[in-house]
Amino acid sequence: MNRFLVLTSVLVLVLGCKNQSKEEVDTSDKSVHWSYDGETGPERWSELEGETHCNGNFQSPINLVNYKVSEDLEPIDLHYSEKTILHDVANNGHSIQYDFEEGDFLIHETDTFHLKQFHFHEPAEHLIEGVRYPLEIHLVHQNESKEFVVLSVMAKEGKNSKPFELLESYLPIQKGETKLIQRPFDISQNLPQNKGYFSYNGSLTTPPCSEEVTWIVFKQAIEVSLEQVELLKYLMPINNYREEQPHHGRVIYSTSF
């Protein structure tokens, strides 16, 4: 009887382990990657990603129109250093992304948000009074509560950009590839001289489309050469941008400068 109970217990454990392994494989097989077109495009993100906010009411990007000029908006409290280390660059299949080591940060409403990474969208995701620029850079900052402040920099075709020369010296980079950089980089060189901006509450523009995001979109665009724009365009997915989302009553504020 004891031997029978032992054998039964072992059999149950073995079958249980097999079932668990099968369930894990099935879950993995059901995972679906998102993209910018077709059946995994933006229109289907809320379906493909399950528990996300991609069909929420306060999504990004938006068209920055009908904004309110606010005298209460102050200059952005930036703490960027030329000594901060740019760690690596990766082609994640959705964009070209540069990752920073800890060092650069900004202060928003007395809270500290550390710069984590920046990446590109071509053409731009946000529209400014209906105008879509050829390139948009997102500088992603995060605090300890996992909330985001994202600085958005528009770029237009013009003169060659020296800071871009360093960034693009590590390109081309194949999809799924990461290249180590480990060099100091002053991200402030990629910001416009005029720091006037628009601000509103929105979301990440890629899945999971989290809505704990404060957007700060600079009014003035920086200039990059046509060749620099074309290189990024060649490496990234075609039109890696999300279409504008409804305002749903949100207020867009603008600095007076």
UniProtKB/TrEMBL annotation:
Belongs to the alpha-carbonic anhydrase family. PANTHER family: CARBONIC ANHYDRASE. Keywords: Lyase, Metal-binding, Zinc. Its EC number is 4.2.1.1. It comes from the Bacteria. It catalyses: hydrogencarbonate + H(+) = CO2 + H2O. This is carbonic anhydrase. InterPro entries: Alpha_CA_prokaryot-like (IPR041891), CA_dom (IPR001148), CA_dom_sf (IPR036398), Carbonic_anhydrase_a-class (IPR023561). SMART domains: Carb_anhydrase (SM01057). It comes from Psychroflexus longus. It is an enzyme of class 4 (lyase). Residues 32-256 form the Alpha-carbonic anhydrase domain.
